[in-house]
Amino acid sequence: MNEMPGGTFNTAGGKPREPTWRDAFSYDMFNNPNKPSWYQTACARDSLLVGIAAGGGVGGLRFIVKGLGKTWVTANWAVGAFALASGGVYTWCQGRRREEAKGMAAAVVGMKMLHEKKAREEAEKKRADEERRRAEEEARIKSKRWWKVWE
């Protein structure tokens, strides 16, 4: 009852379960819940879609131009176009993500500096208000006449 789904031992103080040969061969590296699948990684969808379109376009165009006699060559051209287009778009997308991450890091630093500046300005304003209040109190005390106790 205290064993969590996907867990390996009883969390209520029980001993860990001994691994078996079945466990060694039943590991499913494609359905690891802690790691996204290869097609779920960043930029994969765009690169695969562009690669499929490029492969289909180049393969179809080559098939129309050369005909049925060169089917294997046409298939090779389609696969090559898919690989080149997918690789190119993936590389471009990752570069764009790196630039975006740099921009976000710069924005975070800028916001941190802005918050620090605002905190300094508020502290300075608070200090100036406190000093002004203190000066007004001192002026009020000095202007008070010593014989008028009721003031």
What does this structure look like?
By secondary structure, the protein is mainly alpha-helical. The protein has a domain at 21-101. The chain is built from three helices and no strands. It has helices at residues 21-25, 44-66, 71-143. α2 (44-66) runs antiparallel to α3 (71-143). The longest helix has 73 residues, at 71-143. It is elongated. The mean pLDDT is 84.
Please summarize the sheet with the most strands: none
- CA radius of gyration is 36 Å
Beta content comes to: under 5%
Let me know the number of strands: 0
| Low-pLDDT stretches | none
What is the element layout, followed by pairings?
Layout: H1 21-25, H2 44-66, H3 71-143
Helix pairs in contact: 2-3
Give a brief rundown of this model.
The protein has helices spanning 21-25, 44-66, 71-143.
Task: Fill in the keyword field for this structure.
single chain, 151 residues, 67% helix
